[in-house]
Design brief:
This protein has 248 residues and is α/β, with parallel strands linked by helices. The protein has helices at residues 4-13, 50-54, 62-79, 98-101, 103-112, 132-144, 161-167, 176-179, 186-202, 214-222, and strands at residues 21-29, 34-43, 85-89, 119-124, 148-154, 171-174, 205-208, 227-228, 237-238. It has an eight-stranded mixed beta barrel with strand order 1-2-3-4-5-6-7-8.
């Protein structure tokens, strides 16, 4: 991994070491019948999947790529006239010093007129966080600027209840493997029901990821889940936004 000077230089320059763009997938508020947010998802310039881009990451370009993703997401969201929240994925291990590295994001938001209080940063722990205290410092700095923080893919990888207590995100995104065919699986329903209760008690908003079927959507709604994301509502739109009203 690059040292401090290399990391900070990458943050300042935010060089686009890889050619990529973004697609946007909506997060739906099924109770209010509206789009709550759009998640920015990395795509190749011709629409290639994220895996083709992420496979090119190395310790030498990780810092710059993380910064470039923020710039691209904010720039495109502003150009498309996005009026919802914007969710941006980030890699905690790519943030060297939270206060310094956030400056690129703040500058992009100012240039494009995107309100800071409509930004949410999502991170996943499928990649083990090397320093939990460092991740907590990132979350604290982001909240200082009015951002929200979401813990993605909850229930897989290294995510768990202990990590939830330690990091205390604003949003918890339930992994699709817990959501898929939940309408046919009483055990998954019981787990989801308990998480809904937990989220309500500790003040964390839950989002169900990977909702692909009406039966899943209806079961989740019956279990008390209000916010959902998945192909049942809309697939990611390449450099564009899903139209309203959404199907389903």
């Amino acid at each position: 991994m690059p040292g401090q000077n290399a990391g900070c230089a990458a943050c300042r320059e935010a060089a686009e070491t890889l050619e990529f763009t973004m697609a946007f997938q909506p997060v739906v508020d099924v109770e209010a019948g509206r789009i709550e947010a759009h998640e920015a998802l990395v795509r190749g310039p011709e629409g290639q999947g994220a895996a083709t881009i992420l496979a090119q990451l190395t310790p030498d370009n990780l810092y710059a790529f993380d910064q470039a993703c923020r710039l691209k997401a904010i720039e495109l969201a502003a150009r498309l006239g996005m009026e919802t929240r914007l969710n941006i994925n980030f890699l905690p291990n790519a943030v060297y010093q939270p206060r310094a590295c956030i400056q690129v994001t703040l500058g992009a938001a100012r240039r494009h007129g995107f309100p800071l209080d409509r930004l949410t940063f999502e991170f996943t722990e499928n990649e083990r966080v090397q320093d939990p205290a460092h991740t907590s410092a990132i979350i604290e700095e982001y909240r200082r600027h009015g951002f929200q923080v979401a813990l993605d893919d909850f229930g897989t990888g290294y995510s768990g209840l202990a990590r939830l207590e330690a990091l205390r995100p604003d949003i918890l995104k339930l992994d699709r493997r817990l959501i898929q065919h939940c309408d046919e699986n009483p055990v998954r329903q019981a787990i989801i029901r308990s998480l809904v209760t937990l989220g309500r008690e500790i003040g964390v908003k839950l989002v169900a990821e990977g909702v692909e079927r009406r039966g899943e959507m209806e079961t989740l709604r019956g279990l008390g889940l209000r916010f959902m994301q998945g192909f049942h509502f809309a697939r990611p739109v390449f450099e564009g936004l899903a139209r309203w009203p959404l199907p389903g």
